[in-house]
Amino acid sequence: MVIVTGGTGYIGSHTVVELINAGKSVVILDDLSNSRIEVIDAIEEITGTRPLFHRVDLADAEALKNVFDKIGEKAEAVVHFAAKKAVGESVEKPLLYYRNNLFGLVNLLEEMQRFSIEKLVFSSSCTVYGQPSVIPVTEETPRQKAESPYGNTKSIAEDIISDCCKVSPLKAISLRYFNPIGAHASAKIGELPVGTPTNLVPYVTQTAAGVRQELTVHGDDYPTEDGTCIRDYIHVVDLAKAHLKALERLDKEVSVGGNHEFFNVGTGKGSSVMEVIETFKAATGVNIPYKIGERRPGDVTEIYADTSFAEKELCWKAELNLKDALGSSWNWEKNYRNIKA
Ligand code: WQD
């Protein structure tokens, strides 16, 4: 049985679907602070199997202990997504992020130790690279001081896990996500930001749905071909499949990088904000009204992944492209809002 923390969230729910489809039994731990319990029903509709669920805040050590008393004996591995992830919010509320993301991780690792659960897949982020001097980034690209407390919690979490792997039987794989977008082909699960989206693609789909009036492009005076920032947008289903590959690697006890390995999980291709807008139109026929605004503090100009290590060692490569992902995002938005067009 695999414990998936944050399993009713965007990436977590897509990963639970892939784990169940691969024959794994799954228990979801989630505090529902940034997701809905109805996601469990959607996972059951997609897979035919209803994952077990415990509502729990990982930062509440006593509550987490009580849950592990019920499930810990049967668990073989943990996939850890549960964390707050809004970059801007983390700047305004650093202690909320350090408490939630780091206390939660420490409590989880202590419970894993208590039940001798020795396999962990961790949700890390390309944000640990900051603005890299060399692009595309490899796993050897030096981490840089994160632009936000959110990004800092990812770097610190990687180090906490590494330190535990040095002195215990714990084996871990940290997946450094680039920019997850898209939705499951069923359109039954997808990204559902609380309040006004800060990320590009949900803002695009909400603009297409008429929920937002127009998109503000945060700056077009960057040193890139069209002046807008470049990111590596990866379909969330490809990203979910990378977690299954990571668990399989841990099961085989294969490693070339010690007890804590790191993998970039992206497409290896960079796309600008304008390219996203144009590709969305090509995928959906929907024009996105936009205006050019000021640069957003903390944005890096350009980052995308060198994924050769994951391709070689995880036997994983992204199969879906930007157009596939944007089309699936729009299908999800239409399904969620009962838009027939
Ligand atoms: C992408 C580009 C914006 C919104 C963040 C986190 C990262 C991960 C993904 C959690 C940038 C531009 C955006 C808008 C815009 N989060 N943009 N108008 O900042 O690359 O990554 O989200 O795991 O850790 O750092 O993603 O989608 O916010 O921005 O022009 O309304 O789109 O300036 O260039 P980002 P994003």
Structure report:
With 341 residues, this protein is of the alpha/beta class. It has two domains: 2-182 and 233-265, Rossmann fold (3-Layer(aba) Sandwich); 200-231 and 268-335, UDP-galactose 4-epimerase, domain 1 (Alpha-Beta Complex), CATH 3.90.25.10. The chain has helices spanning 10-21, 38-47, 61-71, 87-92, 94-114, 149-167, 200-208, 236-252, 273-284, 308-314, 322-336; strands at residues 2-5, 26-30, 52-55, 77-80, 119-125, 171-177, 179-181, 215-218, 230-231, 233-235, 260-265, 271-272, 290-293. Strands 3-2-1-4-5-6-11 form a seven-stranded parallel β-sheet, sandwiched between helices. The longest helix has 21 residues, at 94-114. The chain is globular, with a radius of gyration of 19 Å. The protein binds UDP-4-deoxy-4-formamido-beta-L-arabinopyranose (WQD). UDP-4-deoxy-4-formamido-beta-L-arabinopyranose is lined by residues 85, 87, 125, 127, 177, 179, 198-200, 203, 215-218, 229, 231, 273, 296, 299. UDP-4-deoxy-4-formamido-beta-L-arabinopyranose (WQD) binds next to helix 7 and strand 8.
Give the strand order, joined by hyphens, for the main sheet. Answer: 3-2-1-4-5-6-11
Count of spatially separate domains = 2
- CATH top level of the largest domain is Alpha Beta
Helix count equals 11
- Provide the succession of SSEs: EHEHEHEHHEHEEHEEEHEEHEHH
What value does the Rg take, in angstroms?
Answer: 19 Å
